[in-house]
Amino acid sequence: MPPLRLIDGTLVKQGAEAHVYKSTFLYPNVPCLIKHRCISEARLLNRCRSMGVLCPAVYFVDEKRGEIIMEWIEGPSVRDFLHNYMDDASDPGKDENKAIDVRLDALMENIGQTIGKLHDIDTIHGDLTTSNLMLKPRESPGTRILDTADTSLANSDVVLIDFGLGQVSSSDEDKAVDLYVLERAFLSTHPRATRLFDIIIDSYKRNCLGSSVVLRRLQEVRLRGRKKSMVG
């Protein structure tokens, strides 16, 4: 197969690990994401998908050009979704907001299950924030999750993206740090959603075989983090 060229690509992210473009793969109606300089990420993505962890499919790898062409996930990030939720849920007593809370709790359960599966296969994400958790509708590629009241939330999958800092590791410390990074994301970015992280942890316990050891290590990581913040 001849080298694939970036045609009408739009730069969507430029970071230390990679440049990220949105383009199309083979056909104009198949959106894809193209990343530069992180071929090892393709191996992690293939490993995760082969073991049942939801993440973007890898379409093509060009090692000479240092490019990965992968599935474009059409949906909001959990970060954006939670921001919208916090804006909408100004009156928790309303019936519609109670219904949203039920679906939101189910979403947190799903996130905990996804991370539990990831750690069960000894894979570390490395940058586990709510920006790297996407909501992908199950029905069809054209279905969109428009807002927090949309019933399609109940029919959406949590997809992990951006494994540029990921690695294969059985270390309980590495897994605990993954969880700590996510916890800090909730506390700093979604301060009103603290209880949601507790739901994630409860789900993680049920879906990760070594969760008890990892969570004990998480307590140690938290303590080190607090000491570091006190020292400055």
Describe the protein.
The chain is of the alpha+beta class and 232 residues long. The chain folds into 2 domains: 10-71, Phosphorylase Kinase, domain 1, CATH 3.30.200.20; 78-231, Transferase(Phosphotransferase), domain 1 (Orthogonal Bundle). 44% of the residues lie in helices and 18% in strands. Strand 1 and strand 2 (19-24) form a beta hairpin. The chain is globular and about 45 Å long. It starts with 9 loop residues before the first strand and ends with a helix. It catalyses: L-threonyl-[protein] + ATP = O-phospho-L-threonyl-[protein] + ADP + H(+); L-seryl-[protein] + ATP = O-phospho-L-seryl-[protein] + ADP + H(+).
Query: Between the first and last Cα atoms, what is the distance in angstroms?
Result: 54 Å
Name the overall outline.
globular
Q: Strand count, sense and closure of the main sheet?
A: 5 strands, antiparallel
Proportion of strand residues: 15-25%
Q: Enumerate how many helices there are, as a single number.
A: 6
CATH topology of the largest domain, anyone?
Transferase(Phosphotransferase), domain 1
Spell out the helices and strands N to C: EEEHEEHHEEEEHHH
Mean pLDDT: 83
Assign the CATH superfamily of the largest domain. Transferase(Phosphotransferase) domain 1
Please describe the structure with a list of short key phrases separated by commas or semicolons.
232 residues; alpha+beta; Phosphorylase Kinase, domain 1; Transferase(Phosphotransferase), domain 1; two-stranded antiparallel ribbon; 2 domains; 18% strand
What's this model, at a glance?
InterPro entries: Bud32, Kinase-like_dom_sf, Prot_kinase_dom. It comes from Orbilia oligospora. The protein has 232 residues and is α+β, with helices and mostly antiparallel strands.
